[in-house]
Amino acid sequence: MSYDAQGLLISTSTGDRASDAYRFVIDGYTHYKADLGARLATLLADDPGFAMAHVLTGYFAMMPLNASQLGTARQALAQAQRFAVHATHRERSHVAALAYWIEGDLDRALSVWEEILAVHPRDLLALRVHHNTAFWYGLPQRMLHQVTNVMPHWSDQLPGNSTVLACSAFANEECGQYDAAEKAGWAAIESEPGNLWATHALTHVMEMQGRRDEGIDFLNGLEPHWDAANNFKHHLWWHRAMFHLERREFDQVLDLYDQRFRNLASPLLQAVPDLYNDVLNATSMLSRLQLHGVAAGDRWEELADLGEARIGDTLATLTLPHWMMALAGAERWQAAERLLKEITDAVPMQRGERQSILQEAALPVSRAVLFHARRDYAASVDAMLPALPKMQRLGGSHAQRDVFEQVFIDAAMKSDQDDLLRHHLDRALATHPVAPVHRIGYTAAARRVGGSYIQ
């Protein structure tokens, strides 16, 4: 018998060599290591009949939210199903979760991971994949509920405990529980300074609380631990740029864009230039800068090239209005219209939650972005307004989705709709601990309507 790092039985047939390789893959996944693909290749070579090796191949193919990877995921699923006859019940449940995920039945996939964790609360893979999937589909309460359930079964004596703490930190932050988030995040960092997810969670807390100087120093201090990291370190650099943006240090923002999180010479970026999180980083930052009169130059062009190539891929709902930003930023109006048509056509092809997310959030927000770029500000407001209460369903974080709220505010100001501005500023006051007048995307609107908004 072989076991994973948390003592759970695994069905590898080649003993210690494959079980060590399996642990190495899980460690690479939870720590955002750039060599994750090589680690997985070693595991597959050590035990080609190990069902969980093929499950991991399928999971990792699904995580980029790129429809071109669905074929790889399906092939991995077929292999996992083939070898699952020798697998444990827990491992067969992972195979089932992968199948539901590929089919687009996200609720059932999440439910299977939850069922695994109810019996095996130390299944770190099930926890982390559940956390990731719930996050990208706008379900922070489900993230928090699951990690809270498993935490009593973990301790600092168990490998992977800092990952559980990091998940707790981020889930608490996204649910507005900043003290609990900070406590868990610092515990993870003190145990493991290179824990990027804990770093990320604490950065979000500092962003939400307006702790900009502290956030910059915090990220600078931990950056030496990121050398072996994958593209996720780009997102941490994006967060650093967000702090500089709030301080109106636009030259530093552009320097971080060109040299760090969108450095076109980076081997990581060259390997996967259209990775969803990198696209979100780049397009949203250029959009924020343009809202404040900072020209993007020709930076839109390479993003628009990638966006045109991805028209028709609606797997990542949050990415769709970001692709629209790229196409509109480069003034590729025909391509922008094609993107809208493809999203519209995709709606009846989906089912359940994915269908409603596309129809009620991704499509109207993408329309609003295009109207804004064409300076039809009243139409932009009209398109965005019904989607605002449903924005979280796009997935991602508060910080990532906020760019759309800033587009709405800018359109409302430019179309002289002050009543809507007041309503939206009230919403911002209720959902963000920093007053609108002290947030760069909200300052002008707060000063325009005055009153309690500038106090």
Describe the protein.
It is a single chain. This protein has a two-stranded antiparallel ribbon. The chain is mainly alpha-helical and 455 residues long. The chain folds into 3 domains: 1-148, Serine Threonine Protein Phosphatase 5, Tetratricopeptide repeat (Alpha Horseshoe); 154-253, Tetratricopeptide repeat domain (Serine Threonine Protein Phosphatase 5, Tetratricopeptide repeat, Alpha Horseshoe); 273-416. It starts with a strand and ends in a 6-residue tail after the last helix. Helix content is 68%, strand content 1%. The protein has helices at residues 16-30, 36-46, 51-62, 70-83, 89-103, 106-119, 124-136, 140-150, 161-174, 178-191, 196-208, 212-222, 232-246, 250-261, 267-271, 276-291, 299-309, 319-329, 333-346, 352-373, 377-384, 398-414, 418-431, 443-449; strands spanning 2-3, 9-10.
What is the radius of gyration?
22 Å
Average residue pLDDT? 96
Uncertain ranges: none
The side-by-side strand order for the widest beta sheet comes to 1-2
Class per helix and strand makeup: mainly alpha
Write down the CATH class of the largest domain. Answer: Mainly Alpha
The CATH topology name of the largest domain reads Serine Threonine Protein Phosphatase 5, Tetratricopeptide repeat
Strand content: under 5%
Name given to the CATH architecture of the largest domain: Alpha Horseshoe
* Strand segment count: 2
The ordered H/E elements are EEHHHHHHHHHHHHHHHHHHHHHHHH
Q: Quote the distance from N terminus to C terminus.
A: 65 Å
Question: What spatial form do the alpha-carbon principal axes imply?
Answer: globular
What is the makeup of the main sheet? 2 strands, antiparallel
- The number of helices is 24
Number of domains: 3
Instruction: Classify the helix fraction into a percent range.
Output: 55-70%
